Amino acid sequence: MKNNILITSAGQRVALVKEFQETLKRFYPDRNVFTTDMNPKLAPAAYVSDQCFVVPRCTSEDYIETLLSLCMEHSIGMIVPTIDTELAILSANKDIFAKHGIFVSVSDYDFIMMCRDKRNTGEFLEKHGIRVPKPIDKNHPTFPMFAKPYDGSLSTNLHYIKTPEDLTSEILEDPKLLFMEYIDKEVYKEYTVDMYYGKDQRVKCIVPRERIKIRAGEINKGLTEKEPLTKYLYDRLETIDGCIGCICIQLFLNPGNGDVVGIEINPRFGGGYPQTYAVGGNYPELLIREYFLGETVEYFDDWKDHLLMLRYDDAVYV
Fold this sequence. Notes:
By secondary structure, the chain is an alpha/beta fold. The chain contains 11 helices and 14 strands.
């Protein structure tokens, strides 16, 4: 049976690999979690996984064929992508893998592309009753304001513009930047919410994590909080067409007046997902139960509230 799992672009995702291993072994003790990377020798997760395979860049013409060959050779029945750049190509080729009994844990192509373009993401969130930052005309600006690329990731090319002097010609002339209302972090709390959507495209679990401290675009210190965002998001995003598996949504919440502002959606496992796993949001288990065991998964919210995560650096010695 094809019950091995492949996590692509493993890089530094050591915790995610371990969590899939721990979970898979409970169901299939003799099965493995494999990884891929362009340079396994320099990928910490490669040494933690049961075996890591060298693959070309995901934009290469050979990428899909390479993955399919690996899956066939090593009895892999599930692929879990981890970086934004590979989501679209894997989604577009899901049927190729499905013909060979291989499930790719990625949402439908249209949903992926909507998430990739933050202009469309804003329209999606507003359509579902979630406010987004108000747009600002860069030629007639009000201050302070914020600018970010419509297709950015890893918190790069972000600009907090306090005064006219901060609005440089380089920023003004960047065609990818969106200009918007600045959300004051002294007033608003920042959250990433891990959500799991089942085969039926209905949400099965919602775990909000306050981003107390961020480093290199990922949560470094975080606190899980059920309310008020769990019910807020369930009421608005109970069903999303074309959405399956793990996604993470970034939001701001004003505790004083309850104002919620949606920022973006990442349709994959986020870098802070290990905190969700620690509180009982075991999404690897949900994937295994749905796609390996054929079970029906129901919504649940009995995970541990108010769990504080404090991350630190560790090392692999080779």
